Amino acid sequence: MKATVHVMLKNGVLDPQGEAIRASLGTLGFESALGVRQGKIIELDLADGTTEDEVTKMCEALLANTVIESYRIEMGA
Fold first, then answer.
1. With helix as H, strand as E and coil as C, how does 19-62 read?
2. Domain boundaries, the chain
3. How confident is the model at residue 2 (pLDDT cuts 50, 70, 90)?
4. Name one GO biological process term (predicted).
5. Which CATH architecture has domain 2-76?
6. What is the pLDDT of residue 53?
7. pLDDT of the residue at 29
């Protein structure tokens, strides 16, 4: 079983990496990128029977800093 966790900074939290990417895109001529937010994707290989609740607990304990980050879980086969 697999799970994918998408972690992003919450709205309103400064994203210096996203701003650096946006500025670099502008330097390369891609002026249409008005804003960039950078996040991370974590892929988990899980034991059969692992529940989304267990993955949520993993996110809350380690995978996301819930003070400044939000996360979304996708459970798969």
1. HHHHHHHHHCCCCCCCCCCCEEEEEEECCCCCCHHHHHHHHHHH
2. 2-76
3. very high
4. 'de novo' IMP biosynthetic process
5. 2-Layer Sandwich (3.30)
6. 98
7. 96
